[in-house]
Amino acid sequence: MSGLCVIGLQWGDEAKGKLVDLLTAEQEVVVRYQGGANAGHTVVVGDKTYKLHHVPSGILNPNVMNVITGGVVLNPPTLLDEIASLTARDIRVADNLKISDRAHLVMPWHLAEDRALDRATPGDDNIGTTLRGIGPCYRDKVGRAHAIRMGDMFRGDFADRVRSICAVKRTLITGMGGADLAETLDAERIIEQYRAFAEQLRPLVDDTTHYLLDAVEQGRKVLFEGAQGALLDIDHGTFPFVTSSNSSGLGVCAGSGVPPRWIDKVIGVAKCYSTRVGGGPFPTELHDEIGQRIRDVGREYGTTTGRPRRCGWFDAVAVRYTARLSGVDTLAMMMLDVLSCVDEIKVCVAYDIDGQPVTRFPSHVDSLRRAKPIFETLPGWNVDVTGIRNYDDLPSNARSYLDRISELVGRPVEIVSVGPDRVQTMFRRLA
Ligand code: GDP
Ligand code: IMO
Ligand code: MG
């Protein structure tokens, strides 16, 4: 058994990147297996900050192989920019990254479709995507006829495929009210650009399914880095306000090609409060000064889009659900330091839906929209905890808060983070 998974349990941005980088020291392979450049994973090492979108957060450790599997949707120019900026900062990428030939490509028409759909969807129905072409690319993957995979760029019929798909997409996007966007799609230019991307990426492309099967069968230590969070899971999240992949723990095997028998442990990552970017219901959202304070202190602005994140109290109904769904063994509780800015802390222990107390996370977004949080209030600690390195040295109110979360979620807290840096992390020995 050699697979360790790091899975976000909320709506993304739980600090998965920080944790993966930290855990990488004891791993041999780090794998991104779903999502694409909608992800923005931040790793802080001393005075340096790295923002990763496609590349696994193991890349800062030169002894680790990083793998982008066929479950990821990949935008070649964005990936090449990411690789170039890492290389310019003396991070070794060329020998330490493998990309699946099965990965589906985000093409320029996917970006245009994402934007056209966003423009055409007003108000509360707008998903507020990252506009990275993720949904349209996954839609074409499932639809098959208009999909292009990494390996297809090296085939003789690539140019003809681009020409025929581009023609269909121009009509489609025009029909969506995006004539101006369709106008920018020039098949001959795309063919020329993508041929150049293909040559640059060629040395990194491999059959990662076999590589990972060999790795786990040989007992090598493999870490699976989730992107987004379980509440954004296409099948089990707050549909339709979700992303287009299985971002809960359920996505690990399908996305990577590694069967469940090799998964040894799942760490669920959650913030000590909640955030959400984009549209969709968020029962514990704060619309007041406290929400703004958490946003300011936690620097809650999107890593990928820079959008302000919506902030609210910790939702134990939601996280208990996603911890169960993701097969979580232990919890990593992040951003504890941010809650030092409030005098008392609320935790949602149940919802009131149409006058009924509910502790099961609802399957339909309409029920979630009507859910009024039932809060429990705990005392804050009001002291700076960013310099604390041992769990037992945390203020007793902070420990009580973590104990209560653990009890409500039904999983032990193994890791606590009090700042962005690697050193601002505590590991607890669990019985
Ligand atoms: P990810 O997408 O899950 O990897 O998370 P992001 O990188 O999008 O967002 C997490 C943000 O919180 C980043 O800016 C991190 O540097 C920062 N961060 C990570 N852990 C902590 C923590 O314990 N406290 C504080 N204040 N910031 C943290
Ligand atoms: P990381 O990996 C936070 C959200 C978007 C939008 C919805 C659908 O950094 O945690 P998409 O572009 O995927 O079609 O957008 O999902 N979203 C994220 N929110 N963190 C992310 O990734 C996200 N990736 C997508 O804001 O609401
Ligand atoms: Mg992020």
Please describe what this structure looks like.
By secondary structure, the protein is of the alpha/beta class. Helices cover 32% and strands 21% of the residues. The protein has helices at 16-23, 76-88, 108-120, 134-143, 158-175, 179-183, 187-201, 208-217, 251-256, 289-297, 316-325, 365-370, 396-409, and strands at residues 3-8, 29-32, 41-45, 48-52, 65-68, 73-74, 97-100, 104-105, 205-206, 222-225, 263-271, 274-276, 310-312, 314-315, 330-334, 344-353, 356-358, 372-379, 413-417, 425-427. The strands form five sheets. A ten-stranded mixed sheet has the order 9-7-5-2-10-1-11-15-19-20, with helices on both faces. Strands 14, 16, 17 and 18 form a four-stranded mixed sheet that branches. Strands 3-4 form a two-stranded antiparallel ribbon. A hairpin with a 7-residue loop joins β19 (413-417) and β20. α3 crosses α4 (134-143) and α3 packs parallel to α5. The radius of gyration is 22 Å and the shape is globular. Residues 8, 11-13, 38-41, 127-130, 132, 134-135, 227-229, 232, 243-244, 277-278, 303 line the site of 6-O-phosphoryl inosine monophosphate.
Radius of gyration: 22 Å
Shape: globular
Strand content is 15-25%
Low-confidence stretches: none
Bound molecules: guanosine-5'-diphosphate, 6-O-phosphoryl inosine monophosphate, magnesium ion
The separation of the N and C termini measures 21 Å
By DSSP, the count of extended strands is 20
Helix content: 25-40%
Number of helices: 13
Q: Sketch the major β-sheet.
A: 10 strands, mixed
Strand order in the largest sheet = 9-7-5-2-10-1-11-15-19-20
Q: Label the structural class.
A: alpha/beta
Mean pLDDT over the full residue set: 97
